[in-house]
Specification:
Layout: H1 18-21, H2 23-35, H3 37-49, E1 51-56, E2 62-67, H4 71-82, E3 92-93, E4 96-97, H5 103-118
Antiparallel strand pairs: 1-2, 3-4
Length: 135
Amino acid sequence: MAKGKWGGARPNSGPKKNRDKYPEVFESAAALLKANAIAMTQAGVDLALGVKVQETDAEGNDRVYKKPPDVRALTEMLNRFFGKVQDEVDVTSDGESIAFANESERLRALVAFAQSIGNGGAGQDTPSPDPEEGS
């Protein structure tokens, strides 16, 4: 195979650009969102904080109740304004950090873990093969 034929971006790959295909739809949607941005933001804040709702039933009776704050709306508003909080992942084993002295030790640990999962956790006492053997 000729050099340069493997890897890299492929022509015409990736998401299709419907914006170019249907520009009038996207322009119309952008105008609608822009015209209602303040009202939509206020609606999100109202959902996040809770609102009073008034409904009229079939007999013409008014019913007023308070809709409690919506946690998802609150989270969305905070994430939009401040940015989403980064999740931190701490990998530990029985309360102690896992540290690998070298790459082969890390590979042995991965092989042992994969074997224990493959055997439903029963393969933990099975000796793991040395990943450097046969290479």
